[in-house]
């Protein structure tokens, strides 16, 4: 069973954003989700994705930056149209976004 069928729509949106950015703070994910739920809900979903083993976090000062534990291909997650907002990095720039300037202490 692939990731696409194991996750909710919102969880897939979060994973799409993480894959596109390479890594992201909660506020960046919240900003990129279309019609986003509350900031706290996004933070909770990211924590759940981490508990499920799909995300990991690193401490960046007093903030956490999240990244995927596996590649999109290994996860079996295909990009879904309209899942990310404007301002996301193109796929060829994955991993170039440092993201350590500001963020969330999720």
TrEMBL record:
Question: This protein is called what?
Answer: BlaI/MecI/CopY family transcriptional regulator
Keywords, alphabetical: DNA-binding, Transcription, Transcription regulation
What Gene3D superfamilies does the record tag this protein with?
Winged helix-like DNA-binding domain superfamily/Winged helix DNA-binding domain (1.10.10.10)
Signal peptide: which range, if any? none
The taxonomy runs:
unclassified sequences, metagenomes, ecological metagenomes
Name the Gene Ontology biological process terms: negative regulation of DNA-templated transcription
**Renumbered residue ranges of the record's region Disordered:** 66-106
GO MF term set? DNA binding
Family per similarity comment: Belongs to the BlaI transcriptional regulatory family.
